[in-house]
Design brief:
Length: 194
């Protein structure tokens, strides 16, 4: 299995001069995610996907011995599709802005993903996110309840030809380690409180 950290976004909602993934929470946000993947011992290789939007993030990842895959940085879906078409394995995809992610929750996700499914997305319940004072985005309805995408998926890249034809499976995990995407200053402030 391959670990893939998405680290090429613009981070415009943060409204900061500094690249979002380099904001410090004990260490740069993106390094929490990289360390979680490394500490899980689930991956033969770990890559970070960067773009012209994230030159300083790319530098710090390279300095920390993370292999880089460069994309154009047009948008997450286009960049991810471009990368997955090049890989021939199961891929654990995660946003680089999940600083509470750790090796144990990564292991749990890998163990509970259905290998017969092409795409498994990790979601939380909307009510759980609200209980942490988060403002849920990317809502979906499952079993008549609202759920929220976390930015984590397990994908069989050998099956990816075009995103339009992929049926999504869901793994529901109400755990703070998977649900705090740092997209805004409010999210960053919450980081120290949950």
């Amino acid at each position: 299995m391959i670990g893939l950290v998405m680290a090429g976004g613009k981070g415009t909602r943060m409204q900061s001069e500094k690249e979002k993934l380099l904001l410090e929470y004990k260490k740069p946000l993106v390094l929490h995610v990289v360390d979680a993947l490394k500490n899980s011992n689930c991956f033969e290789k770990i890559f970070a996907v960067t773009s012209p939007n994230s030159p300083q993030t790319q530098k710090i990842l390279t300095k920390n011995n993370v292999e880089i895959i460069e994309t154009l940085g047009n948008n997450l879906v286009t960049d991810l599709n471009h990368v997955l078409k090049k890989l021939n394995d199961f891929v654990f995809v995660t946003s680089g802005d999940l600083p509470l992610l750790d090796g144990n929750i990564v292991k749990q996700i890998v163990a509970n993903s259905n290998p017969k499914k092409t795409w498994t997305s990790v979601v939380t319940t909307k009510s759980f996110q609200l209980s942490l004072n988060l403002e849920p985005e990317c809502l979906i309805s499952l079993n008549e309840k609202e759920h929220v995408h976390t930015g984590i998926s397990v994908v069989n890249a050998t099956e990816i030809k075009n995103f339009d034809s992929v049926e999504e499976d869901y793994l529901i995990i109400d755990d703070k380690r998977v649900c705090l995407n740092v997209n805004t200053k409010t999210d960053f402030e919450l980081l120290g409180r949950i």
